[in-house]
Design brief:
single chain; mainly alpha; 2 domains; 4 strands; 60% helix
């Protein structure tokens, strides 16, 4: 089999494997995240009405005045699936396709960077929890991660070689003389035409990133971190002075990314409100620790050290082997199919990025979707420097058949246990979570829709139930959704009263509940999740001012009659 056919067969196998894996991982009877109902509904409305530039459904929150569809491109791409296959099924099918395409794109990144074996790292990534689950939540994650990783990978290539000063620490090594003509990770002199093409690609992925995700600052910010790592490499390893070190990094890649983001914002139908959403969603929620207690979504929860170690454990086994490998089994530079200076530059540059992403992941678990791909590239780069046959020969600690197979067997079993644990954690998190099934609250929402008039407000127990209600009826108004901060920023006192009521319903009175639901929120209907908030349901059942009009699938619908 020639080399090209072998590469094509590997890509074909990975395509098949990713399709099977994400099909098994996907819970086909429910949407694993309530936001998936929101995104699917927005895709439906985008298909029917065009770009959505206002959000009257949550007029009590800041979204009633300041709204931009920060996932606009996702909703455009998702809209035909929702239109032809229905809301829930269209969301799942599109999520599956986006996840597979994302992992195939990531595989191409590893192949182009010549991080061998290029097929192993995306395969481990696809099996890593929680990266795997975030790929099929019906959100923008697959598209965003692919655009982000492509932008960073292309930005690695400067237009001129880095190793030119005579005092370079690496140039002093005799080994470097023997590999000066070798190339790896697209290192070396790049033609100006090719560099312009690559800058055009950075511009394009940045533009698409800004249209796909409200946190568009993440891409140029990550490129800036890689540039800082390049400066560090130039100064400490390549032997440049500080001025040269700063000058010889790919600033043009950062400029191309910034211009792409700006053009993306200018093309965005909600461009006037994108900055206010960025400040609230990324800065206030994602980066600044809130000084008030709000029931945030689980993706914003901090990550414990133990959870972080478990999260990176798939690559942790490889990293644990790399440490003795670099000490006792360094690969002979003459056998490397790459320039070792480029590997070191990549390792140093991505170390800064991984350090920042680790801190952000400890702050909010959702940043794991960026940390794990970055860790995969960093681990793969380190692995290129290890002679793995020599390492396992050293680990065998002697001769004999048993000693030669014992350590590889132990490593293999440990790796399989860790991988299978991650696989099970991902499967369990998606399939055994009680909410939200396709027909969640269906009996209650159907009864409310039959009796409600357009623009009537429906009280719902908590903010994360909004997407389900929104998907059922877009004629009505609701209380809070997408994130509790949007309500809190609009009216903090009322928001806290609303958000705290279900948690303290057992100690609340009928009058206090009525005052909030009817008088302050102006609701004409109410939907209570009886499984999550049974105490609140008991209060409404015992008050004659709430007429039960429908129930089913975990919810009860009421009509308010003063």
């Amino acid at each position: 089999m020639n080399a090209k056919l072998r590469i094509l067969s590997i890509f074909g196998f990975l395509l098949f494997a990713f399709c099977i894996w994400f099909s098994v991982l996907m819970p086909w009877g429910k949407l694993p995240d309530p936001d998936a109902f929101y995104h699917a509904t927005m895709a439906k409305l985008t298909w029917e009405r065009g770009p959505i530039t206002s959000f009257p459904w949550l007029d009590l929150t800041t979204l009633g005045i300041h709204f931009a569809d920060q996932h606009f491109l996702l909703h455009v791409l998702q809209s035909p699936f929702v239109h032809f296959f229905g809301l829930a099924q269209g969301s799942r099918i599109s999520s599956l396709i986006f996840a597979v395409l994302s992992l195939m794109g990531i595989t191409i990144v590893f192949y182009k960077l010549r991080l061998r074996p290029f097929w192993l790292w995306p395969l481990l990534l696809a099996l890593s929890y929680p990266f795997s689950t975030r790929m099929v939540l019906g959100k923008a994650s697959p598209l965003v991660i692919l655009l982000w990783l492509v932008g960073l990978a292309v930005s690695l290539t400067p237009p001129t070689p880095l190793l030119t000063p005579s005092n370079s620490l690496l140039n002093k090594r005799e080994d470097m003389k023997r590999i000066r003509t070798l190339s790896c990770l697209r290192e070396g002199r790049v033609s100006s035409v090719r560099w312009q093409v690559e800058l055009g690609l950075v511009f394009l992925v940045s533009l698409l990133f800004a249209l796909t995700h409200g946190g568009w600052i993440i891409l140029p910010g990550s490129i800036l971190l890689l540039i800082a790592g390049n400066v560090l490499y130039n100064k400490t390893i390549a032997g440049f002075d500080l001025k040269q070190s700063i000058k010889k990094v790919p600033w043009s890649a950062l400029l191309a990314s910034l211009i792409g983001v700006i053009v993306g914002i200018l093309l965005h139908p909600g461009r006037r409100e994108l900055f206010s959403l960025l400040w609230l969603q990324v800065v206030k929620i994602g980066l600044i620790a809130p000084t008030y207690a709000l029931p945030m979504g689980q993706e914003w929860d901090p990550t414990s050290i133990g959870a972080l170690i478990a999260m990176i454990s798939t690559f942790g086994v490889v990293l644990l082997l790399i440490i003795p490998g670099l000490i006792f089994a360094r690969r002979n530079v003459e056998t490397l199919q790459c320039n070792v200076s480029t590997l070191i530059r990549l390792i140093i540059s991505w170390s800064l990025l991984i350090a920042v992403l680790t801190a952000l992941t400890l702050k909010s678990i959702r940043f794991a979707e960026y940390l794990l791909p970055a860790l995969a590239i960093w681990t793969a780069a380190l692995a290129q420097l290890v002679d793995w046959k020599k390492l396992f020969a050293w680990l065998s600690l002697g001769g004999g058949r048993l000693s030669k197979t014992l350590m590889p067997t132990i490593v293999l079993i440990a790796s399989l246990v860790i991988i299978l644990r991650g696989v099970w954690n991902g499967y369990d998190a998606l399939h055994n979570k009680p909410e939200f099934i396709d027909d969640q609250y269906l009996g209650a929402t159907k009864a409310i829709s039959e009796q409600a008039q357009p623009n009537d407000r429906v009280y719902h127990s908590q903010w994360d139930e909004f997407p389900v209600l929104f998907s059922r009826d877009q004629r009505l108004k609701y209380v809070a959704g997408l994130d509790p901060n949007f309500f809190y920023e609009a009216t903090s006192t009322l928001a806290l009263d609303y958000l705290e009521l279900p948690f303290h319903a057992a100690s609340s009175t009928k009058e206090r509940v009525w005052s909030l639901i009817h008088d302050k929120l102006g609701a004409k209907f109410a939907l209570i999740d009886t499984i999550r908030w049974p105490d609140l349901a008991k209060i409404l059942d015992s008050d004659s001012r709430y007429k039960k009009i429908g129930q089913g699938q975990g919810g009860v619908g009421y009509r308010l009659q003063p």
